[in-house]
UniProtKB/TrEMBL annotation:
CDD domains: CHS_like. One of its GO terms (molecular function) is fatty acid elongase activity. Its EC number is 2.3.1.-. Residues 345-428 form the Beta-ketoacyl-[acyl-carrier-protein] synthase III C-terminal domain. It comes from Carya illinoinensis. It catalyses: a very-long-chain acyl-CoA + malonyl-CoA + H(+) = a very-long-chain 3-oxoacyl-CoA + CO2 + CoA. It comes from the Eukaryota. This is 3-ketoacyl-CoA synthase. The lineage of its organism: Eukaryota, Viridiplantae, Streptophyta, Embryophyta, Tracheophyta. The keyword Repeat does not apply.
Length: 469
């Protein structure tokens, strides 16, 4: 009997399978659904965890400290701007949110300023090597164990590359993977985090070194077109180095674990693409144009990124409220305002890119955050200025120096920049971080912060709308 049943199965295999997978019955569908769920869980659990072992921010020497008025004095020597433009920049600086102790390149302080390629290399090397030296001292990692190097720098693009400089300086091994990301704007550092996250899934048991310097002098505009003068005042010398690992043995010594990365891009829209645009003015002087659409573009880019991030981190109650609000507005069931999810129910600390004071103001006003939520970024802008991709690391350093990071806390870094691009990284603290790290750039002065910057007016009314042709 067993033999005849086997013969029937062999003779009519398709009919037998159809009987087993009778789609009119809920059982096979439930079985397939459970297979998919368990397969997803299995694959997710198998993905390698990514740890942030530690990071370091570069603090330039006091000889590079530059007050706002000193910057204007030096710019008169370095630039070709007329008195009207100089006065306009003075007003911008007065309302910028920057303090009196930010840093400029050492060669800008000389008479006359030396803007040769040699000096530009010296600037970026001092930042990169200063940050990496501090990071290696903190972690004690053997440089031969570093398998991936990624360097992000918006403007400076030299040969050999900045990543090559790192390999040469620290004599990294011959098979190290290197990537040099340029022209990616202020979101490049967090985009590199997402890129590294993927690389660490296919390269086991390795360390990845991320370095984010910026070349300040390359960004300074020496002409008189107002829409280009805006880029002159916020950018300052700074940089950060970050060490990531997928080694399970690093769990106990790492500070944070990477939970999510989300990247969005709105360059398909012309006004986003053109909102920060490098070009020459009518007399041939190169600079970066900031259009009147920048604030709106930045807010829209951040909102797009937040909508993608929300389902990954928000509790069900917040997701339900948001969806209900969306359907009510979409189908015009009632006249209600858009619901802004309360991310503070899932995130203990938020560290937005400093950008400029108006951008931080819009971030706070339109996205449901309060003064304390953006304190670290405002103080970062005040003390160190806009250090481009590194700014989110200076802000996190502030939170650490204040002793606010506790084990189990969720941290959210969000950065945005030209393109227009926006990136988020969500971390979970694996330990309580004490504020006693002597290499923290805030260590010697954290007791002086926060300072009151609410009296500083914005400069948006000074801006003359411009449109790209």
């Amino acid at each position: 009997m067993l033999g005849s049943r086997s013969t029937m199965m062999l003779e009519n295999p398709h009919e037998h399978i159809n009987k087993l997978l009778n789609l009119n019955s809920p059982a096979p569908l439930l079985f397939l659904f459970l297979i998919c769920i368990f397969s997803y869980i299995f694959i997710t659990k198998r993905s390698r965890k990514v740890f942030l072992v530690d990071f370091a921010c570069y603090k330039p020497p006091d000889t590079q400290m530059c007050s706002k008025e000193k910057f204007i004095d030096r710019f008169k020597i370095y630039g070709n701007s007329n008195e009207t433009s100089i006065e306009f920049m003075r007003k911008l600086l007065g309302r910028s949110g920057l303090g009196e102790k930010t840093y400029m390149p050492s060669y800008l302080m000389r008479d006359p300023p030396d803007v040769s390629l040699v000096e530009k290399r010296n600037e970026v090397e001092s930042v990169m090597f200063g940050a990496v030296d501090s990071l290696l001292e903190k972690t004690g990692v053997n440089t031969q164990d570093i398998g991936i190097v990624i360097v992000t720098c918006t403007i400076l693009n030299v040969v050999p590359s900045l990543a090559d400089m790192i390999v040469n300086r620290y004599k990294l091994r011959e098979n190290v993977l290197i990537y040099n990301l340029t022209s990616m704007g202020c979101s490049a550092g967090l985009r590199a985090i997402g890129f590294t996250q993927k690389l660490l899934q296919v390269h086991p048991n390795t360390y990845a070194l991320l370095v984010s310097p910026e070349n300040t002098m390359q960004m300074i505009y020496k002409g008189n077109e107002r829409s280009k003068l805006f880029m002159n005042f916020p950018l300052r010398v700074g940089g950060a180095a970050v060490l990531l690992s997928n080694r399970p043995s690093d769990h106990d010594k790492a500070k944070y674990q990477l939970i999510h990365t989300v990247h969005t891009h709105t360059a398909s829209l012309d006004r986003s693409y053109q909102s920060i645009y490098e070009e020459e003015d009518p007399v041939g002087i190169g600079g970066v144009t900031i259009t009147k659409d920048l604030l709106a573009v930045a807010v829209e880019a951040v909102e797009t990124n937040i909508h993608a991030l929300g389902p990954l981190v928000l509790p069900i109650s917040e997701i339900t409220r948001y969806l209900a609000n969306y359907f009510i507005r979409h189908f015009h069931l009632a006249d209600v305002k858009p619901y802004v999810p309360n991310f503070k129910k899932a995130i203990e600390h938020v560290f937005p890119h400093v950008g400029t004071k108006p951008v931080l103001d819009e971030f706070e006003k339109n996205l449901g955050f309060n003064e304390s939520d953006v304190e670290a970024s405002r103080m970062n802008l005040y003390r160190f200025g806009n250090t481009c991709s590194a700014s989110v690391w200076y802000a996190l350093s502030y939170g650490e120096a204040k002793g606010r990071i506790k084990k189990g806390d969720n941290l959210w870094q969000i950065a945005f920049g030209s393109g227009f691009k926006c990136s988020s990284a969500v971390w979970r603290a694996l330990k309580t971080v004490n504020g006693d790290d002597k290499r923290n750039p805030w260590k010697d002065e954290i007791k002086d912060f926060p300072v009151d910057v609410r009296h500083i007016q914005t400069y948006s009314e000074l801006f003359e709308p411009t449109k790209k042709k």
